[in-house]
Glutathione import ATP-binding protein GsiA
Amino acid sequence: MTALTQAPDRGGPAQPLLEVTGLVKHFPIHGGLLGRQVATVRAVDGVSLTIRKGETLGIVGESGCGKSTTARLLMRLLDPDAGEMVFDGEQVGGTDQTGGVTLRDYRRQVQMVFQDSYASLNPRLTIEETIAFSPQVHGVSGREARERAHELLAAVGLAPAQFARRYPHEVSGGQRQRINIARALALQPRLVILDEPVSALDKSVEAQVLNLLVDLKEKFGLTYAFISHDLNVVQYISDRVLVMYLGQVAEQGPVEEIYERPAHPYTRALLASRPSMDPAKRRTAPPLTGDPPNPVNPPSGCRFRTRCTLAEDVCAQRVPVAAPLSAGHEAACHAVMPGSGHSAAPRIAA
Ligand SMILES: Nc1ncnc2c1ncn2[C@@H]1O[C@H](COP(=O)(O)OP(=O)(O)OP(=O)(O)O)[C@@H](O)[C@H]1O
């Protein structure tokens, strides 16, 4: 048995693997003849989250709410403007002097799978070369890296004898996404960030790839952050769910809590807007209307207030903080925050 088929001891499921506090990423917009900065897109604006060992954290929200920017920050493909990241108890971005995990080591332990399976593969490399590339960069011998590539091809359901020598354009979209997954696992990561990994696939292929991801997580002892705008897919795959709105966290909690007892009006509206065959799952709240505001100039106070049926004066005046609702479930909404001044808020006992 080789190292790849043996899941290393990664600790109990409740321990945090990645803890992120106050993550911020603003993009400057330049314009005019002199190319001066004319505006700032507040793509991610104070996101805090925890991904526990062995779990899948689903991240949902409408287009433009900052999911992909969050994914790139978690992967450290982008540098945050502010915020702290702690990976398995160690500060991310440390040096020999400061201690902590170096970015190079972090980027080995955290890998990413993107939506566009074709764009993320080099068309000039065979599938075997594609998967073996990163291990070789990290000092694994050519022979061992090729063996690892074949083992991973088999693990993602592609017969090595049939696929190893082919090029990305010679396989289907679903097979290409399997290759991307194999490539992401080649450095034996602990955390895999999946950014809309099944959104470009047909429904039947989508189900196969989702089941494959579930199997691989078990087999290799992985932890996932799963980003998607598809609430049904996120419900299927996640243990916990984080709902983003306009660069911030609206609500987070265990998957059953979020889907059965959503507290934030945004989560309720999102769920009411999703396509469902089950009438009981439809229209539990008014569905979403309109588009999210521009993240260059977000509304004051609660960012959702301009689309919220519960909005009151306090929602424009104060930024809501996350209110704890039940174990691990919290929502940033004045209407659920005891003593917030919102007419629907629980009263604080004297
Ligand atoms: N490099 C960039 N420069 C300027 N603005 C950016 C940049 N990248 C993202 N944005 C903006 O940041 C906001 C968040 O974008 P992001 O792609 O993270 O959202 P998303 O939730 O992943 O959306 P989608 O589901 O459409 O991919 C958007 O308004 C987007 O236009």
Summary: The first helix runs from residue 67 to 75. The pocket of adenosine-5'-triphosphate is lined by residues 27, 41, 43, 61, 63-69, 229, 295 (CB under 6 Å).
